[in-house]
């Protein structure tokens, strides 16, 4: 039975089983006349609920199965994709991939498809997340709205809006050389914004996890409303270099942007902050504060990432930065062969660790600074330094003598997540910020707030 035949509200029953995915892959492989063929299958279900003004505005669900066929003819390669799974449509897709491959230029970096591999066992699928139907989502929204209403009473009836989404996904990879990989995962995310009646205060909170039970809608609603009330009538203070306390969600907005820089090829070719002057890369050199450790691990109980990449290459634990020292960079199969090293995929989630303090303790140690809830509208300025620009939003506060004293107006900022990790004053205890991400709060000196923003 195909996933799209099973209804949008039952995520655990909407996905292809291992046997179904293997059978579908075998059907496709038998149709191919290419020298080598790879089949990537994605079977997915998602359910979402959007709400505003304390009422649900939309509730929807999607199921889909897509098949991507990559055909290799000689040293030429091309792909075609379909989500129509009858024999005629699959054959048409395979034939298109083969025809496009014959028309394509030769690929000087072509690597042969992989044969059978061994993968770690990662249980990233939680049935309660996959079965987050509209009724359960509606009840979660109500808990969040009720908590926000109660917490917002000092300012009157707060306006609330937000989005709740749950996903269940199967990814399978098969090749004409006998490889077959299969992985199930789930994730859920709930975010909420509260505004005060006078329109001057805004607060935001969110949670994410593979297991829905780890998300507390009432806590999210309460925090969003409390931030909204506390940020009313914000004061404008001059832009400039300030000590910044970034809550875990704000850190989650910035630190994963380092992923693009953790690329061995761009480093070796002189296009990266991890490029060494005169050639090569900076593996083994200090690149951040010695309290910083950054790693990926699909088997980590809080990360639970997919244990293979889309070529079917196994992914294990990789420490990128250890106590401030760059230990690894991501090597594609081609670049690893060229450099004579093992390929290292960049995946498996991301965790920044190094501290034990709570966010409140990080704030208490700040004489004067800015507390940031989260960032938005982030754009890259310079990939060689990972320099970014963006705006603060939904709760920016002045810290004086270790206490949060008042709301301040939003800022535009220019900052590099790598360079800020070299100006670290303190690092907090890591916590789950979204499915596959673990981040702490940070206190950063000389964070560059460049101008004021009129946004609430």
Give the helix/strand layout:
Elements: H1 18-31, E1 36-52, E2 55-73, E3 76-82, H2 87-103, H3 127-130, H4 134-151, E4 159-175, E5 180-195, E6 202-209, H5 217-230, E7 240-246, H6 248-254, H7 264-268, E8 293-296, E9 318-322, E10 325-326, H8 333-339, E11 350-353, H9 359-364, E12 368-382, E13 387-400, E14 403-407, E15 410-415, H10 417-420, E16 424-427, E17 431-434, E18 437-439, E19 442-453
Helix pairs in contact: 4-5
Kindly report the average pLDDT value.
95
Order of helices and strands: HEEEHHHEEEHEHHEEEHEHEEEEHEEEE
- Helix-strand category: alpha+beta
Largest sheet: 6 strands, antiparallel
- How are the strands of the largest sheet arranged? 3-2-1-4-5-6
User: For the CA atoms, what is the radius of gyration?
Assistant: 24 Å
What do these coordinates show?
The termini are far apart. This protein has a 6-stranded antiparallel sheet with strand order 3-2-1-4-5-6. A 6-stranded mixed sheet has the order 10-9-8-11-18-17. The protein is α+β, with helices and mostly antiparallel strands and 456 residues long. The N terminus is likely disordered. The protein has 2 domains: 217 residues, PmbA/TldD fold; 122 residues, no CATH class. The protein contains 10 helices and 19 strands. The protein is 21% helix and 37% strand.
Summarize the structure.
This protein is α+β, with helices and mostly antiparallel strands. The chain folds into two domains: 3-219, PmbA/TldD fold (2-Layer Sandwich), CATH 3.30.2290; 233-255 and 354-452, no CATH class. The chain has helices at residues 18-31, 87-103, 127-130, 134-151, 217-230, 248-254, 264-268, 333-339, 359-364, 417-420, and strands at residues 36-52, 55-73, 76-82, 159-175, 180-195, 202-209, 240-246, 293-296, 318-322, 325-326, 350-353, 368-382, 387-400, 403-407, 410-415, 424-427, 431-434, 437-439, 442-453.
